């Protein structure tokens, strides 16, 4: 839902920006007039100190300054002499004067060579200082570039702050709309939702009462019965391996009968095995008797032995024994 905040904010921003300018001059720091030409490396070359060899190499037509002066003067004098402009005497005087002048020039050279050396060194140092000043100017130029960039950022920041003011105006309008919606929601909650919630709470209370009754019945009726059932289940499991209940009473009922049956079956198997074993011996004796009628019965077939066996069979099978039986007769 729009409350017209954007229209209001645009109108207010136009009013706020009236008479304001955020434009900066477009300065091209890469232009040639802002660039300092690179200096040569000759400023850092060593300054050669003048020596005697720079004056003369001590040979005719040498490479020294005096040698060069004498070579030039000699050439000029020779040319004048050959063209008969001067005589031999004049040639000698001119040559002597030339040597004197050359020597005077050489003396001046020797006197001024150290001064010239130190002047060259000073000039080199001054040139180096000038180069340092050029580097300093470059640093100042880069600083100016950084300051210009900072000014641009500050200008953009100012423009962003004006935009933020616009957004705040729009936000305030939206907050007003939000407060209005919240007020409508509060009225709806008070008039419509809360009565329903009250009715729901009433039903929940009724459900809680029913749940409490159910839990009470479970606690008082069902759980004791379940406890008894669990105890009996424990006794049933105990009866699988033991002959008495946990309270020491002999196990009865169907489980007790089954245990008695298992016991009787074991006894029956034992008695049956005894009878079968006796039958094996009896059948063997009968077979021998059939073959040899004169064969005497073994001592185990005497009447007293047979009576003992019969008494044990009757006793093991709970058969009443005849008290009137005579010795040698079966009971």
Descriptive account of the structure:
With 331 residues, the protein is mainly α. Among the domains are: 5-196, no CATH class; 297-331, no CATH class. 72% of the residues lie in helices and 0% in strands. The protein contains 6 helices and no strands. It is elongated.
Q: Strand share of the residues? A: under 5%
- Structural class by sheet pairing and helices: mainly alpha
The percent of residues in helical segments reads: over 70%
Strands, total number: 0
Mean of the pLDDT scores?
A: 75
Distance between the termini: 118 Å
Order of helices and strands: HHHHHH
Instruction: Give a quick account of the main beta sheet: strands, pairing sense, barrel closure.
Output: none
Count of alpha/pi helices:
6
**C-alpha Rg (nearest Å):** 71 Å
Stretches with pLDDT under 50, minimum 5 residues: none
Overall shape: it is elongated
